């Protein structure tokens, strides 16, 4: 579904991902893990086509409207004046009829998704009035109605209580059983071992990628920690990679850091 070929992505010539290669098979369920700043979010944004590689390439075998992306919570602009129901409806954009008409079927789908994430009764609340965990649930509901083949989740369980996390893990397993390809950035090794058959371990470079049991070894985790401790954000300019980094969709750095929910 996704092939990553010798991918390097830099921010102002500082590589955040360095010569990464691997693939996400169609229907696979993969965790992306690594220390803070190891390039996990950068990898997801590169798959979504939001960042232009400095070297190498990412190939996705799905049209844009069959891809769904949950951004890391810290990057989401919560001041956007949108109700819960409208936010979830945004997931239907590719299915809406002429003039963006939303029929009763789509409305029902949205209502079902909002109920599934435990937010029935919250439909008219603005997203800005929700707790972080509630907003994450709204965004999961939006993913549910989106019906994507490739689903990318950046730290989806941040700010969530354990009961909600368990319910949303069930949803991820359901997506997996339906043959969708799911990639999730996670932090909890035990959760990864219990629920994710495949893992990619990053530390700006790739430490290991494959079956979770083979990736999450003490030696690999140790290597990732050592690489992270050796980072020097000011010294690490990469001269070998041709093109300057550029944002494809937005031109300002502010836009790069925030996106509407
Ligand atoms: P992770 O998600 O693993 O914590 P990121 O992919 O967000 O890591 O970031 C990787 C590195 O790139 C970090 O050093 C981070 O500071 C840097 N970085 C991320 N986004 C930007 C940006 N917009 N401008 C400059 N540097 C950035
Ligand atoms: Mg991140």
Find the count of extended strands (DSSP E, 2+ residues).
Answer: 11
Distinct helical segment count: 9
Shape: globular
Radius of gyration: 19 Å
What is the CATH C level class of the largest domain, in words? Alpha Beta
CATH topology of the largest domain, anyone? Rossmann fold
Proportion in helices: 25-40%
Which second-level CATH architecture of the largest domain applies? 3-Layer(aba) Sandwich
Residue ranges: pLDDT <50 for 5 or more in a row? 241-260
What is the H level of CATH, i.e. the homologous superfamily of the largest domain? P-loop containing nucleotide triphosphate hydrolases
The molecules bound to the chains, other than polymers, are:
adenosine-5'-diphosphate, magnesium ion
For the biggest sheet, the summary is: 6 strands, mixed
Calculate the mean pLDDT score and round it.
86
Structural class: alpha/beta
**Domain unit count:** 2
Residue fraction in strands: 15-25%
Distance between the termini: 26 Å
Along the chain, the helix and strand elements come as: EEEHEEEHHHEHEHEEHHEH
**Widest beta sheet: strand line-up:** 6-7-8-3-9-10
Describe the overall structure:
Helix content is 33%, strand content 24%. The protein has 261 residues and is of the alpha/beta class. It folds into two domains: 1-62 and 150-158 and 181-233, P-loop containing nucleotide triphosphate hydrolases (Rossmann fold); 68-148, no CATH class. The strands form three sheets. It has a six-stranded mixed β-sheet, sandwiched between helices. α3 packs across α4. The longest helix is centred in the middle third of the chain and has 16 residues, at 162-177. It is globular. Residues 40-41, 72, 154 line the site of magnesium ion.
């Amino acid at each position: 579904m996704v092939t990553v070929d010798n991918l390097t992505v830099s921010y102002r010539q500082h590589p955040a991902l360095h010569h990464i290669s691997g693939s996400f098979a169609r229907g696979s369920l993969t965790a992306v893990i690594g220390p803070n700043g190891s390039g996990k979010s950068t990898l997801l944004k590169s798959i979504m086509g939001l960042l232009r590689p400095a070297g190498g390439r990412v190939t996705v075998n799905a049209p844009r409207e069959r891809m769904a992306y949950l951004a890391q919570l810290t990057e989401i602009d919560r001041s956007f004046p949108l109700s819960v129901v409208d936010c979830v409806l945004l997931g239907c954009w590719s299915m809406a009829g002429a003039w963006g008409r939303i029929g009763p079927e789509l409305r029902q789908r949205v209502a079902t998704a909002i109920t599934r994430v435990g937010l029935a009764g919250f439909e008219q609340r603005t997203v800005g009035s929700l707790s972080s965990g509630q907003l994450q649930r709204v965004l999961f509901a939006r993913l549910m109605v989106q019906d994507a083949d490739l689903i990318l989740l950046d730290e989806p369980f941040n700010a969530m209580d354990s009961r909600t996390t368990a319910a949303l893990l069930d949803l991820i397993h359901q997506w997996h059983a339906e043959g969708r390809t799911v990639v999730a950035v996670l932090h909890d090794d035990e959760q990864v071992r219990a629920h994710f058959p495949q893992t990619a371990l990053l530390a700006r470079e790739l430490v290991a990628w494959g079956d979770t049991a083979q990736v999450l070894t003490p030696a690999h985790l140790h290597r990732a920690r050592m690489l992270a401790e050796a980072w020097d954000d000011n010294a690490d300019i990469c001269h070998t990679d041709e093109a300057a980094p550029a944002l494809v969709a937005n031109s300002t750095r502010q836009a790069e850091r925030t996106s509407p929910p």
